[in-house]
Amino acid sequence: MALLRTRSAVFTTLRRAFSTTSTTASAAVTHEKPTMSNYLLTHDLASQIGSCMPISMMRIGTLIHNIELRPGEGGKLVRSAGTSAKILKEPTAARRVLIRLPSGVEKLVDTRCRATIGSVSNPSHGAKKLRKAGHSRWLGRRPVVRGVAMNPIDHPHGGGEGKSKGHHSVTPWGKPTKGGYKTASPKKKNRII
């Protein structure tokens, strides 16, 4: 019963808000109340933030996220915190639309692919400061140890006394590992057949 009373109260309020105004002198002086048809014409309900729809139904310059690469596959691009992509060109005859990704790369995507309007929330995620080493461990990140601090058995840069860089990087079998080293290959000789 309470639900019916609430519904009737909501409908009454909506009817009052969107009812047509009479053309009297007092109505001409004051601002007119918006009618339902005027409201639908001025507010594009399809381009509300958070709506998911095919890219072909979106305008140029719309910020989007969670973009599919193939229709019906699910969102693959622009999903991390605070990111958004921008639609640059309208769909062409080839059914492709040009999108600028957060990295600056411009990519052609099928217009049948779906995307969500707006940007992903939590833009300050990357600026968050970790207070102590344990904080990164809680996030599942293991410590990073430099190669020069290891033993020669553990890393090609390892070994030596103190902070030494006195020898070239070698594999556990003594072969050089860094650039510039080429294995000796026999020269091809021109053969006369």
UniProtKB/TrEMBL annotation:
GO cellular component annotations of the record: mitochondrial large ribosomal subunit; plastid
Any coiled-coil regions, as ranges: none
GO molecular function, one term: transferase activity
Database matches in PROSITE patterns: RIBOSOMAL_L2
Chief localisation class: mitochondrion
UniProt subcellular location: Mitochondrion; Plastid
A biological process term (GO) from this entry: mitochondrial translation
Signal peptide extent: none
Compositional bias per record (Basic and acidic residues), positions renumbered to this chain: 154-164
Superkingdom of source: Eukaryota
Segments for region (Disordered): 154-193
Keyword NAD: no
Gene3D superfamilies in UniProt: 2.30.30.30, Ribosomal protein L2, domain 3 (4.10.950.10)
Pfam families assigned to the protein according to its UniProt record, in alphabetical order: Ribosomal_L2_C
Large ribosomal subunit protein uL2 C-terminal domain segment(s): 47-176
UniProt keyword list: Mitochondrion, Ribonucleoprotein, Ribosomal protein
Family, as annotated: Belongs to the universal ribosomal protein uL2 family.
Designated name of the protein: Large ribosomal subunit protein uL2 C-terminal domain-containing protein
Provenance organism: Opuntia streptacantha (Prickly pear cactus)
